[in-house]
Amino acid sequence: MNTSTTGRGDVSYLAPLFSAAAAHRGDNRFLLLPDPAERSRLAKDDEPLKSRGAAKFIQSSFSAGLIHVEAFTKLVVVAHQIDPYSPWTLLRGALENFATATWLLPGAATECHCRLMISATATSTRRTRTTSRGREARRERSARKKSSK
Length: 149
What we know:
Blueprint: H1 15-22, H2 41-46, H3 54-78, H4 86-104, H5 110-148
């Protein structure tokens, strides 16, 4: 097992990340980002998109990032499990979610937010289809193996 050069128990370099996530923690739960201000550009952009608007996607991506950081914190600080892989896969999950939220935030106009949301929805749909096809193929292989026995 690889350990850091500063020693296995030294995770002080992660303290800023853990502190930043802790700032969004309430009583045993994370505080969600607020809805956009009623007259903001983001709120206006979201009107035609309804529940598929950028604001909800930003909120859920940010929350998912926080949850990954929380799991990362528990693994490293509470359980003292610092191996070469586990913590970093959680950190990557957090980073991807924070990046999605950040990517959606700077949309300058309705057209930009709509394009971003359509792109994000299409990507999500492709992933779902790919996952479903993979599951279906595994089931078929399993059924063939059972029938050949």
